[in-house]
TrEMBL record:
Function summary: Catalyzes the reversible conversion of ribose-5-phosphate to ribulose 5-phosphate.
Cited PANTHER family: RIBOSE-5-PHOSPHATE ISOMERASE (PTHR11934:SF0)
Protein name: Ribose-5-phosphate isomerase A
Highest taxon of the lineage: Bacteria
InterPro entries documented for this protein: NagB/RpiA_transferase-like, Ribose5P_isomerase_typA_subgr, Ribose5P_isomerase_type_A
UniProt record, GO biological process: D-ribose metabolic process; pentose-phosphate shunt, non-oxidative branch
Active site: E107
GO cellular component: cytosol
Amino acid sequence: MTQDELKQAVAKAAVDYIAPKLERSSIVGVGTGSTANFFIDYLAQYKDDFGGAVASSEATAERLKKHGIQVYDLNSISEMEFYVDGADETNEHLELIKGGGGALTREKIVAAVAKTFICIADESKQVGILGDFPLPVEVIPMARSHVGREIVKLGGDPVYRDGVTTDNGNIIIDIHHLDISRPVQVEEQLNNIVGVVTNGLFARRPADLLLLGTSEGVKTIS
Ligand code: 5RP
């Protein structure tokens, strides 16, 4: 199976998992990226059976609306059962690196609100120790050099993602070669750097359920 076919399989599995649990008032949190896009396309067939969605990016909001799915501002939502999103890497504890698409801040906010975070990923994303994928950090533009220097002190190599502005008007620094053998600690250290808005480690709030696309089928890991 190609990587795209694996992504489609997990996207469909996520829809099959949540659809029977959705009520007419349910709001679904929706992530960003190619796997999340497949999820949106499958979810659309149930658009009359649930209340609508909260999007983790402008791109996702646009795709949801194109399908006729109502998109809500997170501030108007009091409860969200599910957040479904892809990942750049996952370890066995369902701790993740996210933000390859630059949407990490809104993704982390929506994940924080949801009762159940379902991660959908193809098997290439499963790793022993996080960190081969450069860790994205969203940074206030004027803090770029300061944050870069602090990242070097932590042992990482910061690389400015040229030409990218996030939906929140900020920049992205990707950290290469960082030791992430203790993800919760690294997430907190990065959060403590002044000028960092969010980092792409989802360890303090990992996924609750991983639907992993493999050549033997979709594996459910919790
Ligand atoms: C976007 C993300 C995505 O979930 C991550 O980059 C995976 O993307 P894809 O599903 O295209 O492989 O975190 O910010």
